[in-house]
Structure prediction request, 86 residues.
Amino acid sequence: MLRRGNNLARYKISIPLPAVKLEDHPGSRLRNPTNTLVEIPVDAVLEVEGGVGQSGLINVLWDGAAFSVFYEDLKEKALLLTQAEA
Prediction:
């Protein structure tokens, strides 16, 4: 799990970030990908959920929903916020 101190890592988007919306999987903590593709806009603040998978994907929370993004894209298109900024 990516953390900054005792808090989950938070990122602020600087370049629109493509993402796949996730939905809850009944009876499990895992989430399933949907067919919904979105572009997370500039200045959105995301909270990382969990760690980077073998696929290079990481789950993030934004606007009350869960999404999956490529970690490399996240690092290139967003700024890691300090605790004071978050």
